[in-house]
Amino acid sequence: MNWISKMFSSSLGQKLIMAITGLFLITFLIVHCTLNSLIFLNDGGVTFNAGAQFMATNPLIRIVEVVLFIGLILHVAKALVLTLNNNKSRPVKYASYDGKANSKWYSRSMGILGSLLLIFLVIHLSHFWIGTKAAQFNGTILSHNTYLELKEVFESPLNVLIYLLGVISLGYHLMHGFQSAFQTLGINHKKYTPFIKSFGNVFSILISFIFAMMPIAMHFDIIK
Amino acid sequence: MSGNMNINLKVWRQKNGKSQGKLVDYKVENVSPDMSFLEMFDVLNDRLINEGKDEPIAFDHDCREGICGSCSMYINGRPHGPNQGVTTCQLHMRSFKDNDTIVVEPWRSAAFPVIKDLATNRSAFDRIIASGGFISINTGNAQDANNLPIPKGDADDSFAAAACIGCGACVAACKNSSAMLFVSAKVSQLALLPQGAPERATRVLNMVAQMDAEGFGSCTNTGACEAECPKQISLTNIARLNREYYKATLFSSEG
User: What's the pTM value of the predicted model, to 2 decimals?
Assistant: First the structure.
């Protein structure tokens, strides 16, 4: 089994972990975004709460939650290792550096965007996930009203601002990350790469837009 | 002559690999727009030698035809300067304006240590090639050209990858100073041809291992290398390198 450890300690193997966990986290975003979009039904959170309760009680989802956290930790840990190594590979920096001449700013800022996302995630989990976890342990999950929590959190303009910044970081992180993951997997061909790139851009903008609409709609009472 | 320019240079001067370097200002007057960038340095060096105060500026150059991969100046924040698809020797002063200030630095990478001024040691690339960038061939009479059928598309892709001159602009441009574009070109040019098949798996495994050992960074797919490559080597080669690497690891008995 030496070949496995050899592969995953090489730069290419570590990047493979980044790509696979990245795409896995994207599938989570799709589920998360779809479920949260139930608030747009504007039915006082009845359907949304039913969905949230399903997610909080279904045993399969509980297992996937653990896998999700492992994926997230791997993605962050590998990013940290690779970034530190990349910084070491250029000890003397350039006096003049014209990055915009050859690449997009967000493709060069994945570390910063990812760090912003991580900070956002800690705030986000403290807002919602911890409450749900506590309810799970106390056995009060069936009466737990996540929709009410949403309303309370998004009453604060500061929270709305934090969520918008988080969502913007997410959008740019995905714009590069989506197509970059396919390139790392070795999927690059003139037949489908243009599609992957444009699909990635549309997906990133769309999912960020839908996420951004949630705090805005709640704050301005568009959703009762 | 009319149309000649005055250029303000800020050039990285460093005595040797151990000493600290710094940017030094030079004013070069009466520069013809038809001069190449390197010829402008020749003029400046001529002056420095005649004045006898300062040592001439060390920089790499050989063919001055854009094919050898020796010249390696990082000009105003970009390897080989502002133009696409050219090396520093094929960059001409008409690409600049009168009284422009131009910052000239060496390639910056832990794997390319500075020897002196603008000259860096790029033997790391040679060691990567030695680790697998070759094929075993039969000696004796040359085979008939059509003995080995090769699809036209593969031959074209292989030839496009083989255009890499190993100058290191990809490393210089990359924010991680990754050598992926170079290694991917060298793996691709052989992986696409039947002659490259016998060493296919060992080649990619050894070359990637050597690339990592040399201290190059990893690829974050920004595409800066492709944009700055004087031979316009395509990013599809990097995807092929990834595929070749996974295939060799998972499906060959090597590694």
Answer: 0.95
Q: Is the pLDDT of residue B2 over 70?
A: no
B57 and B93 housed in the same domain: yes
Which residue of A11, A94, A184 is in closest CB contact with B221?
A: A184
Preferred mutation among A83, A90, A178 to probe B, highest tally of B CBs within 10 A: A90
> What is the arithmetic mean of pLDDT over B183-208?
96
Whether A27 has its CB under 8 Å from any CB of chain B: the answer is: no
Considering only the beta carbons, identify the residue of B10, B217, B245 that sits closest to A12: B245
Q: What CATH code is carried by the domain that includes residue B195?
A: 1.10.1060.10
B7 strand-pairing partners: B28
In chain B, the number of structural domains is: 2
Contact state of B221 with A179 under an 8 Å Cβ cutoff: yes
Is residue B100 domain-shared with residue B134, that is, in the same domain? no
Q: List the 136-155 stretch of B: residues with Cβ below 8 A of A.
A: none
Which distant-in-sequence residues (6+ apart) come within 8 Å of A77 by Cβ? none
Q: What is the pLDDT of residues A109-131, one digit of tens each?
A: 999 999 999 999 999 999 999 88
* B220 to A110: CB separation less than 8 angstroms, yes or no: yes
pLDDT of residue B1: 55
Q: Is the ipTM of this complex over 0.85?
A: yes
* Structural domain contains residue B87: yes
Is residue B114 assigned to a domain? Answer: no
**Residues B202 and B160 grouped into a single domain:** yes
Tallying the residues shown for chain B, one arrives at 255
DSSP one-letter code for A128: I
Sheet containing B101-105: give its strands across.
B22-31, B5-13, B101-105, B74-75, B78-79
DSSP code of residue A129:
I
B168 is in which domain, residue-wise? 123-251
| Same-domain status, B147 and B223 | yes
B22, B220, B229, best to mutate vs chain A, most A CBs in 10 Å: B220
Domain boundary among B52, B78, B105: B105
Q: Would you state the structure tokens that stand for residue B218, as one six-digit string?
A: 């990893």
